[in-house]
Prior knowledge:
Layout: H1 3-12, H2 16-23, H3 27-31, H4 42-52, H5 56-61, H6 69-76, H7 81-90, H8 93-119, H9 124-134, E1 137-139, E2 143-145, E3 151-153, H10 159-171, H11 176-186, E4 187-189, E5 194-196, E6 202-204, H12 224-232, H13 236-248, H14 253-261, H15 297-306, H16 315-320, H17 324-339, H18 341-350
Antiparallel strand pairs: 1-4, 2-3, 5-6
Amino acid sequence: xxxxxxxxxEEKNIKQKELAEILGISSSMISQWNDExxxxxxxxxxxxxxxxxxxxxxxLDGKRSGESLEDKWKREYSINEDAxxxxxxxxxxxxxxxYLNALRKADLKFFELFEKKLTGEISSAQLKEWSFLRQFYxxxxxxxxxxxxxxxxxxxxRFDDILLDTLINKIGRHNxxxxxxxxxKIYNITRYGVGIxxxxxxxxxxxxxxxxxxxxLEYLKYDVGVFYAVYNILSxxxxxxxxxxxxxxxxxxxxxxxxxKRGGNILYTRDDFNMPNFDYKDLTDMEGDVKPAPEMDGVHxxxxxxxxxxxxxxxxxxxxxxxxxxxxxxxxxxxYKEKSPVKYWEFIRANSTILL
Length: 356
């Protein structure tokens, strides 16, 4: 959706459905409006300008007349660390959700621009926006050694370019997915002191709260909306590790489905391949040597090498660890359960012994 129009709606507290009714168009059409406003009809532009007291030129520029680019970004990415900490402590759910959603929005834009930076298609204005968003990121490595052997601190002005050039040289510019995957391991948007415990509990992970005396997140720690909002801004690997633990811990199907929709992938673990040999003469006898499924020998070997060891997996190797059959089965179970209970039980019976 067009970010400038969205900010105008928030100022006036107008919902998307309400705006659609005012303009006489569908809500889905509003969702498809891009930031350049090139796909908004002239009649809608005129009506929006009158409704929000802005000019059509301002709508096309995506900012108010006289507003600097930095002021525009501050408005669009309303990320305030100190205010967020207070809101968490006070249990201000609406403000916390606005803050977390701003982080999510910034994270998506940051890596969208990072891809343009990778391919050399980034404009000067977009590069400035990327640099603005960079301030909200923690770097997971203390420094990086460039190709010329120079050790570069992540506070060095050249750090980002040297890191990107090193990854391009190592992986190849053509393999964008692999480079972006590595970048997402290194650049993590800050959450200012909150994380998720295994019981869907929002927990403090910031020393800021050490002297608070009591649980600072008491009012929000079990809130479902806040839980999903925090999950949305986890790094891809953090998401995958969390959902994998929940899957093996017997997490309800509908929660697993929600976590998958929000970008999580269930990973294979070594236990997935500890399949006992059954003595079919006596079905109660499940003794026997444990062996992996033969068609998954490559993944099985990789698991034994990776889990519990400090091993740097490549992007291609990591993709092998994603348990796609199980996620597809979850998707089908949800689909059948919602639309056809009879088909759902038929599906469950037919797939009750499905191999991972």
